[in-house]
Amino acid sequence: MTDIVLLPGDGIGPEIVEAVCTILDKAGADLKYHKYDIGQTAYEKNQVLIPEETLEAIKKYKVCLKGPVTTPIGKGFRSVNVNLRLAFDLYVNLRPAYSIKNISKFENVDIVTIRENTEDLYIGEEHEIADGFEAIKRITAKASERIIRYAFEYAKKNNRKKVTCVHKANILKKTDGLFLETFRRIAKEYEDIISDDKIIDNMCMQLVMYPQNYDVLVAPNLYGDIISDLIAGLVGGLGLVPGANLGNDVAIFEAVHGSAPDIAGKGIANPIALLQAAIMMLDHLNKHDVSEKILKAVLKTLQDGKDLTKDLGGTATTKELMNAIISNL
Ligand code: NAI
Prior knowledge:
With 329 residues, the chain is α/β, with parallel strands linked by helices. It has helices spanning 13-26, 40-46, 52-61, 80-87, 141-157, 175-187, 200-209, 221-235, 272-284, 288-304, 318-327, and strands spanning 2-7, 31-35, 63-66, 92-98, 110-116, 126-129, 132-135, 162-167, 194-199, 216-219, 242-246, 251-255.
C-alpha cells in the first residue's frame, strides 16, 4: 500500500473526496489514506486553519490529495491554499485541460497551463494609502527562472511543441518585464520547442477564438489562475479540470475549482475534477496502469452521457456519477 495524506477540506470537499476514494479503491489503487483536517473544518474544531499535525503528515508522506478550502472574500485570513503552497515551496501549479467529445464546447483543446505558485500579487501584501489601498506584485528572477525552466522541461518530456509566455509587460515593465525577459533567455536553450508570448488580454481573446493554437502556457500567478479557469470553461467547466501543486519534495493534487458553497451538502457536486487530480497523483506515484484504467472509465462515462451531474447538463447525483464510473472500470 502507498501512504498518502487526504485533506477533505470544506464545502463540497468531503462529498467529492468520499466519491473519489471509493473509485480509487474499486480500481485497485492500493492507497492508505491518512486523513487530516484543513481550512474551516479545522478552524471550527481547534481554531487553527492548518494544524501542525496536518503539516507534519504532508512533510512525512510527501503526496497529498486535497479537497477545496473556503477563503473569506474581502476580509479575514490569508488563503489556506496560498499558505500551504508557501509552506512546502510548491512553486509549480500544473493544470492540464483537454476537449472531451460530447462534453466540451470547443473541440481540439489540449492546453497545459503552468502557473507560478509562490509570488506575484498572491503574497497578499496590501497597505493603506491616503485614499485607499495598494498591493505588492512581487516577481523575482529566481521564481521566474525555475517556473519557466519547468515549463520548457515539461514540454520536452511530454513531446509538446510550443510554450507561450503570458504577461502584461507593456504596462508592468519591471515585474512582467523580468518574467518575459527570463522567458526569452531560457527559450533560446530549447531550440526544438517553439516559443512565443502574448499579452494577457489578447491571450484571453485568442483562447476563446483559436484555442487549438495553444499548447503549453507559462504565466505568473494571477494570470495563470485566471486563464486556467477560462480554459476550464472551454472544455466543460470547473467540474472537470485538475491541478497539481509541485515542489522539489512535496506534491499536492486538487481540483481547480473551489468549495462551491452554493451546492455544498446537496450531493450534486461533480467529483470528476478531483478524480482527474487523483489520476495525476497516481501517475506521480508511477501507478500508471490504475490511472489509465480510471481515465478510460471517466471518459466512457462522459461519452455515454447518461449519468452526468447538473454542471454537465445532467440530473445525476455525485453518488450516481460515481457508480457509473465504477461500473465502467
Ligand atoms: P467555486 O469554484 O467554488 O465555484 C464556482 C462555480 O462552479 C459555482 O457555481 C459552483 O457551484 C460551481 N462548481 C465548482 N465546482 C463544482 C463541482 N465540482 N461540481 C459542480 N459545480 C461546481 O468558486 P467560488 O464560488 O468563487 O469560490 C468558493 C470558495 O472556494 C471561496 O472561498 C474560494 O476562495 C474557494 N476556492 C478554493 C480553491 C481551492 O481550495 N483550491 C480554489 C478556488 C476557490
